[in-house]
Structure formats: C-alpha cells, structure tokens
Amino acid sequence: MGSVCRRDWQKKYVGRSRVALKPRTTEQVSELLRYCSSRRLAVVPQGGNTGLVGGSVPVFDEVVISTAAMNRVLHFDEVSGALVAQAGCVLQSLDEFVGQRGFMMPLDLGAKGSCQIGGNVSTGAGGLRLLRYGSLHGSVLGLEVVLPEPLVPTPAPLPRAGAGAGDGLGSGVGGKGSGGDGRVLDLLRTLRKDNTGYDLKQLFIGAEGTLGIVTAVAIQCAPRPASVQVALLACPSFAAVTATLAAARRRLGEVLSAVEFLDTAASTLTTAHLDGVRNPLVAETAGGGVNGGGWGEATGGGGEVTRGSAWSPASSGASGGPFYVLVETHGSDEEHDRQKMERFLEAVMSDGCVADGTLASSEAQAAAIWRLREGIAEALARRGAVYKYDVSLPTSGMYDMVEALRGRLAAGGFGPEAGVAVVGYGHIGDGNLHLNVSAPRYDDVLLGLIEPYVYEFVASRNGSISAEHGIGLMKAGALSYSKGPVAVQLMRAIKAAVDPGGIMNPYKLLPRI
Ligand code: FAD
Ligand code: MLT
Ligand code: ZN
Q: Which cofactor does it need (predicted)?
C-alpha cells in the first residue's frame, strides 16, 4: 500500500496500515465488513482523502476500505433533478454529469476535484453555497449503507491511541466472530417527502465512517443558473463586512448564492504561494511581485480598481482591505440580476461599508475571484505547518476570535517575526469562520497556546468547534466543548447499537473514555 491511503491531505496524520481494499460493488463492501466483523478487524472508510481532521486515515494498522472504485452514476431523473450515484463518484465529475443536463450539485467546495460524494456525506460537508442550497441534511434524499455485523462475541478492549505502535485492532484481536451478514441498510429513496418515523439516513450524514460504509447516495440537484454574478469587495472593518452581508441578504434576496470573506493575511498568503492567483483589489508591486509576498501582517496594498470590471467605486485610489468579501448571485435573468447587483454595490459604497470593489465581467474573471478564495487552504498547506480551526460563532463578533488569538500568540513569542501568521476567512454567510495558524513547523509550545484556548473561546460564545469539517481524530477529545454529557452519552449508545464490535473508524469522533 502506498502512503496515499495512509496519510491525510495535510500530511499531518499517518498510520501504519498495510492493507487498502478497493471494492467495486455494495456486495463486495458487505463481504468485507462481514469478514472484518468476524475477525474484529478495525476499518477506516476512505473517500477522496481530502478531509481536514484526520478522519480518513488509520491511526494504527486499521484496514482501509476505499470507495475510489465505486464511481458509477446509477440514475438521474431529469425532471426532479434527483441523482443516485455510487459513493466513490468525485464531486466535480458529478457536477459535470448533471451540468450537461441543466443541473448542478447542491454543494461545492475547493476539494471538488478529489473529494467523493460518499466522503462529503460522511463529513456532512458544507462548502461555498450552503447559504443558498442548504446543508446535506436537506439535500440528501436517500442513502445505502453497509453496516458492521451486529453481534461480536467477547469483544476485546480497543488499544488506546498513543498506546504504542502497531497494536491496533487490525492485528485481529477478538478472535473469530459469529459470522454475520454484513448488513445492507437500503434507504436509497429519491422522494422529497417520506415521513415514516425516524429519519435514519440523517444518522450517517456527518458520522465520519464510525457507523458504517456509505455505498450509494441519492441527492437533490438544483437547476443550473442561467446567470451568475461575482463581485469582490474591500471593506474597511469587520463591522463593515457584517453590514455588507446584511445588505446582500436584504438587497439580493432570492438570487444571493454565496457570501464569503477573507482577511488581508489570507489574501497575502494565497497570492504569494499560488502561481497566477492575485487579488484584483490589491496593486502589484513594481518588481512584479504581488502583495509584497511576505508573511505576518501585510498591508492592504495600493487599492487599484480592477480594470475590465463593469462596476467601479466612485472614488479612485481607495485602499484594499483589510477585509475582502466575495458576493455571488445565481439567477435566471442576466439583466435583472445585474441590475440588482449594481444597486446593491451602489448602496454599500455610499454607506461606506465598501471602499473598493470589482464585479466580474466574464466567466474567467469570476473564476479568478473564486480561485483567490478557494485557494486559501492549498496556499496554507504549501507554506508549512497549519493549525486549522473551523468554528461557528455569532457573526457580528466572529473576528474577535482571530484578533484575540493573534494577540495571544504574539505575546507568547509566536508573532510575525517568528514566521507565524494567524489567518481568518470563511463562509461568513453561514456564520462559519476558518481560523488558521500558519507556522514554519509544528511546535508543542505553540499548540499549547492555541488549544484549549480556541475551544474555550468558542464555548464561551455558544459556538461550535466544528462548523463543517467534522471532528475526526483531531477534535475527538474536544467534543464536550460543543456537546453536553447527555448528547455524548446518546451518541455512544447509537455507536454501540450500530457497531457493537467497535470496528468502524475507531478513535475518531467520540472522545476516549
Ligand atoms: P475523506 O477525506 O476520504 O473522508 C472523510 C471522512 O468520511 C472520514 O472520517 C472517512 O472515514 C469518512 N468516509 C469517507 N467516505 C466514506 C464512506 N463512503 N462511508 C463512510 N464513511 C466515509 N469541507 C467543507 O465542509 N467545506 C469546504 O468548503 C471544504 N473545502 C475544502 C477544501 C480543500 C482544498 C480541502 C482539502 C478540503 C475541504 N473540505 C471542506 C474538507 C471536506 O471535509 C472534504 O473535502 C470532503 O467533504 C471529504 O470528502 P472525501 O471524499 O475526501 O472524504
Ligand atoms: C474552505 O472553506 O476553504 C475549506 O473549508 C478549507 C479550509 O478551511 O481551509
Ligand atoms: Zn470551508
């Protein structure tokens, strides 16, 4: 087995598995789970392996079951837009497939070229347009899931993460089991309405492979918009960002499809590390570099209004940033949507919420703006070590978290001079902040300053320690910051009922007892 299946996308977590299996059919998955249940072999389901919390890779020598070869579209209803696909279909391929039929996938994310629909469902991924198209808890119509065997005699205790190398369940502890059936839970319906008791499919959305293996997904696609408008705006303060969001909701209403934000640190880092990516609101330096190319607290730049844009602010020479807001609309009438967008832009300009901006006048310009936003994760990964936090917080005070951490780290000797950048960006329209600390290398003293501080901060504001990336291995020990004891107890009871042998993705999601 190559390191591809053993190591996560960020190259932060690595296990020691020697076995990665790639079934093609549900029956093969069922056979594999039956075998693993009977031998009490621990299993890690793996999709595109783009998860950001260490959920998709083994901790020890668990058996990796990859859905990469389960990549067939099973059915598409061109009237309703209901798509049924095997779990291993890559999100972008599905979007292209339904795109040829006038539809779009209801979710989109920067990892679309590699992540799989089964992985998206299992993480409960949010993405760039949740604001408009809702979460997977609404758009998933049905699932097919292979469950582990219900009964395993005399389960042996699980080894604890960190208890020593190569002592995982994969070595076959527990002896021979009862020989179950590798149960297939068939919930693969495409109905919009099905009010027949417990909505079991919801349990598997965001279960992170701890309850079973999703083998097929039925999902509601949306009509592909005939008209798309994308603007990038520079706001002078975070209060101006939230006022711009409120204005976008009010003035763009039913056509609004995304409101994303990034701070200057995120913009600077991304343009410095990704070839060909630039912030159109920041002037290039005379030497041809972009944004100074430095780390730490970059300046906003020259604030030039983008050429070729259909809209520009009344005043020229306004400075870019320190915050950038991406606003997108999806509609059916180009002229109507353009007018709406222009009125919105005029309003936020005259209110002083927006100091500078550009409205894409071609698909290429729109894609370039999106590339700046979507490229942040990749740029961070290229720069070095990344401590990634993905939190939900009340929107108005959300950026306090970034500023507080920046101050705390600087005071502890981990400021810009130490090569540490604290970066804030995310799905502001959904109250979701991505708080990232980029450093030259992983450092336990630095980590000690970040955790549990970040989790305590989030809990003190009634936020969530995971808005969309899930819990995985990274946050299993921190679950109680967002879930009370009764909720955790119920989660454990569900896990025990569905996976009594505890073979499904051990050490992930639930805290160790
Ligand atoms: P994997 O990483 O392979 O697995 C993720 C989890 O699901 C693991 O716990 C795994 O065990 C489990 N799993 C996978 N497949 C199955 C299955 N068939 N059955 C049961 N369990 C399974 N997330 C967002 O929410 N929003 C974003 O905007 C976003 N952007 C991203 C951008 C980049 C560049 C990257 C690298 C990641 C991003 N993510 C984002 C993280 C996101 O969770 C994943 O990209 C995606 O949802 C995971 O899909 P995957 O197929 O790669 O799953
Ligand atoms: C994003 O919104 O870009 C993704 O969730 C990835 C990340 O948080 O870096
Ligand atoms: Zn995100």
A: FAD
Instruction: Determine the Cα–Cα distance for residues 71 and 94; give it in Å rounded to an integer.
Output: 10
Whether 236 and 351 map to the same domain: the answer is yes
Q: Token digits for 52?
A: 């950001």
- Tokens (6 digits) for 357: 């901006």
Tell me the angle at which helices 238-252 and 334-350 cross, rounded to the nearest 10 degrees: 150
Ligand nearest to the CA of 50: 1
> Which residue's C-alpha comes closest to atom 38 of ligand 1?
111
Handedness of CA 163, 166, 169, 171 (dihedral sign): negative
Nearest atom, ligand 2, residue 110 CA:
3
Residues 367 and 400 in one domain: no
Any ligand 1 atom below 6 A from CB of 52: yes
- Claim to verify: residue 237 and residue 310 sit in the same structural domain: yes
Q: Does the C-beta of 34 come closer than 6 Å to ligand 2?
A: no
Are 457 and 366 found together in one domain?
Answer: no
What local confidence, expressed as pLDDT, does residue 149 receive?
86
315-335 pLDDT, tens digit each: 333 345 699 999 999 999 999
d(CA 375, CA 108): 14
The span from the CA of 267 to the CA of 353, in Å, is: 19
Distance between CA atoms of residues 187 and 197, nearest Å: 13
Residues 6+ apart with CB under 8 A from 240: 323, 352, 353, 354
Centre of ligand 1 from the C-alpha of residue 311, in Å: 37
| Residue 332, both tokens | 């059916």
| Parts of the chain with a pLDDT under 70 | 1-4, 151-182, 285-321
pTM: 0.91
Q: Are residues 257 and 349 in the same domain?
A: yes
Number of folded domains that form the chain: 2
- Per DSSP, the three-state class of 311 is coil
Ligand nearest to the CA of 509: 1
Tens digits of residue pLDDT in 164-204: 333 334 333 233 333 445 699 999 999 999 999 999 999 99
* C-beta 374 within 6 A of ligand 1: no
ipTM (interface predicted TM): 0.99
- pLDDT (0 to 100) of residue 1: 63
Residue 25 lies in a domain: no
- Evaluate whether residue 291 is within a structural domain: yes
Q: Are 10 and 477 in contact (CB under 8 A)?
A: no
Distance 317 CA to ligand 1 centre (A): 42
What SS3 string covers 88-111? CCEHHHHHHHHHCCCEECCCCCCC
Give residue for tokens 């783009």: 50
